[in-house]
């Protein structure tokens, strides 16, 4: 039975990958650079609505990549998961903005060791996170962005970033979808009203699965709006199974701030 289930999961993942292959993230997005008042630069790629209609407001998805995609080519951040998100946006009636910044080599979205069993959120965000939040703040001000439908998601190092971003600005995001990351459990009360669906592989050897379990428990304790999916047979690489699932993305895009 276990082998049969594994085959079915593999077949479903292959089918989803084939369906999303029609959307090339590099072709669908444009390379940009954000420079703040202090002269600090953050590279990013952005996709706008396929058909901009006057007076219409569109959702914004903020995506944060993992550690392996850091650099300065302004392309590697699209390597994992983004093809599924972009395909869904183009094909499932979720047209809108997509933003994926690239964290420079040697930096992190959150300045904490990934193997630690817990961390406390620093008063100030990391340099890369600070720049990204500045950029998101400016994009939220665009007249065509629906501020009631701004979503944040990310994997691994970006999973940490997702928790960090929503804990710093719970009023900004309609929903959060962190994959194999971790947040500050003592600040769960700040995000108890934000719909969150988090994911982790039970056999993860890079980011302890307890990082997600502890956040879920902390949110349950304060009446948080939290869902959790744990993959019993997966290690760290669980993002394809997550982002290729249309039910997950349907949930994300269905969330709206009141």
Helical segment count: 8
Strand content: 15-25%
For the termini, the CA-CA separation is 44 Å
Poorly predicted runs: 1-20
Sum up the overall morphology in one term. globular
Number of strands: 8
What oligomeric state do the depicted chains represent? single chain
The Cα radius of gyration reads: 17 Å
Give the helices and strands as they follow along the chain. HHEEEHEHEHEEHEHH
Helix content: 25-40%
SSE class:
alpha/beta
Biggest beta sheet attributes: 8 strands, mixed
State mean pLDDT (0 to 100 scale): 92
Write out the strand line-up for the largest beta sheet, numbering strands in chain order: 1-2-4-3-5-6-7-8
Would you summarize the structure shown here?
This protein has eight helices and eight strands. The chain has 258 residues and is an alpha/beta fold.
What features would you describe in this structure?
- There is one protein chain.
- The protein is an alpha/beta fold and 258 residues long.
- 33% of the residues lie in helices and 21% in strands.
- The chain contains eight helices and eight strands; from the N terminus they run H-H-E-E-E-H-E-H-E-H-E-E-H-E-H-H.
- The chain has helices at residues 2-20, 25-28, 82-91, 127-140, 157-168, 210-221, 239-243, 246-254; strands at residues 30-35, 41-47, 58-64, 97-102, 145-155, 175-179, 196-201, 226-231.
- The chain has an eight-stranded mixed β-sheet, sandwiched between helices.
- Strand 1 and strand 2 form a beta hairpin.
- Helix 1 (2-20) crosses helix 3.
- The protein is globular.
- The model is unreliable at 1-20 (pLDDT under 50).
